[in-house]
Automatic annotation (TrEMBL):
GP-PDE domain ranges (all copies): 37-285
Cited InterPro entries: GP_PDE_dom (IPR030395), PLC-like_Pdiesterase_TIM-brl (IPR017946)
Source organism (scientific name): Geobacillus kaustophilus
Name used for this protein in its record: Glycerophosphoryl diester phosphodiesterase family protein
Single GO BP term: lipid metabolic process
Length: 293
């Protein structure tokens, strides 16, 4: 009898300890009643590593982001690089290395000159020595490490579309539809349309001022040449999402890092959100599944 009691106590303890895992696994198998919201790694996992570096992209892949965003610019000698800002001052040591070349505009430098810069120390000393990568280096890393997440490319300047498309074709990303494009420049998206296969999406980014200028007219214009709209977090409402979906446009939102914002946007039915922390939505969803059971 004593052995049976001990066995029962052990079994109950094991059951209680394993219950959260069982519930999480069960919940994961349940079909969701809500459409999936894509998680887009904003400049990679830029909350944990310096933006637009190979470390940031690798981390985003490890966190299983649905897309990895890459801002693309062209250097003075026409190399495509991953860089957000128009100048180098914020995310590199350009002011120290090239003190007489203010305001340190990206397109005033050759790629060889950019290669001398440290693009990691500004974020944390642990990333000292990180370099500005070319778009091709990003693609090659994703292929070599068998990363499934597609690229989400923002063309930062009009006129680079053919070069970007050529590079993506070279590595099979266009043929496999492992890419999406966005831009603040309508002319850039319009230039891309005849260059890319059917089914690859184009997203028109808009700022706060533009979003407040007249929703219906704006959506009508965008629907002519694009597949979706990229909205700043502060303007997104249920009415915005409904109006965009009514025009056949998907809605992506930037930049969403706080748990309450993540929850609200998923409830509103947005199609994707940019976040500096690609692991947070997954952690929040797992906690919710446990709580609901």
């Amino acid at each position: 009898m004593r052995r049976i009691t001990v066995f029962r106590l052990c079994f109950c303890a094991w059951f209680l300890l394993s219950l959260p895992l069982v519930l999480a696994s069960s919940a994961a198998r349940q079909p969701s009643s809500q459409p999936k919201t894509d998680i887009i790694a904003h400049r990679g996992a830029s909350g944990y590593a310096p933006e637009h570096t190979l470390s940031s992209y690798r981390l985003a892949a490890c966190m299983q982001a649905d897309y990895i965003e890459v801002d693309v610019q062209m250097t003075k000698d026409r190399k495509l690089i991953a860089m957000h800002d128009a100048t180098l001052a914020r995310t590199t040591n350009a002011e120290t290395v090239y003190p007489r070349r203010a305001p340190w505009r990206v397109n005033d430098f050759s790629f060889a000159e950019l290669r001398r810069l440290d693009a990691g120390s500004w974020f944390d000393p642990r990333f000292a020595g990180e370099r500005i990568p070319t778009l091709e280096e990003v693609i090659q890393m994703l292929k070599a490490e068998r990363v499934e997440a597609p690229l989400y490319i923002e063309t930062k300047q009009p006129g680079i579309e053919e070069a970007v498309v050529h590079l993506l074709k070279k590595h099979g990303f266009l043929q496999q539809r492992r890419v999406m494009f966005q831009s603040f420049h309508p002319e850039s998206l319009q230039a891309l349309r005849p260059l890319i296969p059917y089914g690859i999406r184009l997203i028109q980014l808009v700022g706060k001022k533009e979003a407040h200028s007249g929703r219906d007219e704006l959506l009508q214009q965008i629907a002519i040449y694009a597949d979706g709209i990229g909205l700043p977090l502060s303007v997104v409402t249920e009415e915005w999402v409904r109006a965009a979906h009514g025009r056949g446009l998907i809605v992506h939102v930037y930049t969403v890092n706080e748990p309450h914002d993540l929850a609200r946007l998923c409830t509103l039915g947005v199609d994707g959100l940019f976040t500096d922390y690609p692991d947070r939505p997954g952690r929040i969803a797992a906690c919710r599944r446990l709580l609901h059971h």
